[in-house]
């Protein structure tokens, strides 16, 4: 089979055993460095993508993505819901009333953010119904004073479905015994588990029960919205606010969790930059290995030149050798990185459980997420191959500049 001379000789040089074992060692280090750099970069990018996805799907699936609220209770909140549903990017809307307090049971106390909701509408804007481990949102009925809490809260207070729990509000009420906090007894009618910090922070009660606790008429404080584009939240809230009277105000998730999202994006960018530098260093190892090969093959180059090989042919011979080293290291790293990205969540979860570690306590979710994007794999592989190709240019041009007479003088 016909092969171009540059490809033929380049492949032979790549497979040939060298008398100078140090050169082979440098080439091996180049391949290993490139493999590890690419693998780690793909794995870390997948983990960062996992955190990004979990923030969007879980945290932002629980908290209001955009809200419009009134300074007064809204007895007739349905027209506001209908108006919100007509806005661009709004996938669903629901009424809410929000209050803060403390839950106390069995001598334990924990702070909680309670939302008064209508279960029928809440399912349009929240993922909580999909993560119920006991009970249901439908068990929240006006006047029955039921509460749905997260698994973290339930475990911390030692609660199960049908247990009683007391909600203490920060507002004080005068009584013959003096000023005492306002409190109300609730029954746990549901427990959800999102696998994030919200499991021990958020609770749900019936919409009108929340109004009664605040000593207000039946109704809602405002409307929360679920969006098909979370980054449109400020614009959507602002446009809806412009269609309402002056006693309304708006908020969105960027004001409450925007810093967390920005931190993830910044960490992803900085870690990617640092790991790309590792790939760059590995690519420069190709330069050193090829420079040594050129020095070792001076006589071979001189003979090829005397047989009629052009400087361009010599350049291509060593570029072939460098590109093969780069391609082998890159593809091996890509395969290893994809394998790690697909299995790292289960692997670290098993280590965390088996050895009783607390590896993820510092994060907003209680496990290590990983989300492999093939676009990232393609980008990393392309950049690594490009760096490997660029690393071959200097040694190959140096080889082409060798003069046959000078190289053979002392042979």
Automatic annotation (TrEMBL):
The keyword S-adenosyl-L-methionine does not apply. It is a multi-pass membrane protein. InterPro entries: ABC3_permease_C, Lipoprotein-release_system, LolCE_TM, MacB_PCD. It is found in: Cell membrane. One of its GO terms (cellular component) is plasma membrane protein complex. It holds the Pfam family MacB_PCD. GO terms for biological process: cell division; lipoprotein localization to outer membrane; lipoprotein transport. The keyword Nucleotide-binding does not apply. This is Cell division protein FtsX. It comes from Alkanindiges hydrocarboniclasticus. The lineage of its organism: Bacteria, Pseudomonadati, Pseudomonadota, Gammaproteobacteria, Moraxellales.
């Amino acid at each position: 089979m016909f092969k171009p001379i540059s490809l033929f000789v380049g492949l032979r040089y790549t497979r040939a055993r060298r008398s100078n074992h140090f050169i082979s060692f440098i080439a091996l280090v180049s391949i290993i460095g490139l493999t590890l750099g690419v693998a780690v970069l793909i794995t870390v990018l997948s983990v960062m993508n996992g955190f990004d996805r979990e923030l969007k799907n879980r945290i932002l699936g629980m908290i209001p993505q955009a809200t419009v609220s009134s300074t007064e209770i809204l007895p007739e909140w349905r027209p506001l819901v209908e108006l919100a549903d007509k806005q661009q990017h709004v996938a669903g809307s629901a009424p809410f009333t929000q209050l803060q307090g403390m839950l106390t049971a069995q001598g334990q106390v924990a702070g909680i953010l309670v939302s008064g909701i209508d279960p029928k509408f809440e399912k349009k804007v929240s993922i909580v119904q999909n993560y119920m481990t006991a009970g249901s949102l439908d068990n929240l009925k006006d006047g029955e004073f039921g509460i749905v809490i997260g698994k973290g809260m339930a475990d911390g207070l030692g609660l199960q479905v049908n247990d009683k729990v007391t909600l203490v509000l920060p507002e004080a009420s005068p009584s013959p015994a003096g000023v005492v906090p306002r409190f109300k007894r609730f029954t746990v009618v549901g427990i959800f588990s999102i696998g994030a910090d919200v499991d021990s922070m958020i609770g749900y009660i019936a919409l009108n029960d929340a109004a009664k606790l605040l000593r207000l008429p039946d109704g809602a404080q405002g409307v929360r919205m679920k969006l098909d584009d979370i980054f449109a939240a400020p614009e959507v809230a602002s446009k809806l606010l412009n269609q309402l009277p002056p006693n309304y105000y708006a908020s969105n998730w960027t004001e409450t969790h925007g810093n967390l999202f920005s931190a993830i994006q910044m960490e992803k960018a900085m870690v990617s930059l640092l790991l790309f530098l590792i790939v760059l260093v590995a690519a420069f190892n190709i330069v050193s290995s090829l420079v040594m090969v050129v020095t070792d093959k001076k006589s071979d180059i001189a003979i090829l030149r005397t047989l009629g090989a052009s400087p361009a042919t010599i350049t291509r011979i060593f570029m072939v050798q460098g590109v093969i080293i780069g391609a082998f290291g890159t593809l091996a790293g890509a395969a290893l990185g994809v394998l790690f990205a697909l299995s790292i969540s289960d692997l670290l979860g098993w280590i965390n459980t088996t050895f009783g570690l607390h590896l993820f306590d510092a994060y907003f979710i209680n496990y290590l997420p990983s989300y492999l994007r093939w676009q990232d794999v393609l980008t990393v592989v392309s950049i690594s191959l490009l760096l490997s190709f660029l690393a071959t240019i200097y040694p190959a041009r140096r080889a082409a500049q060798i003069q046959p007479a000078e190289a053979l003088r002392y042979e």
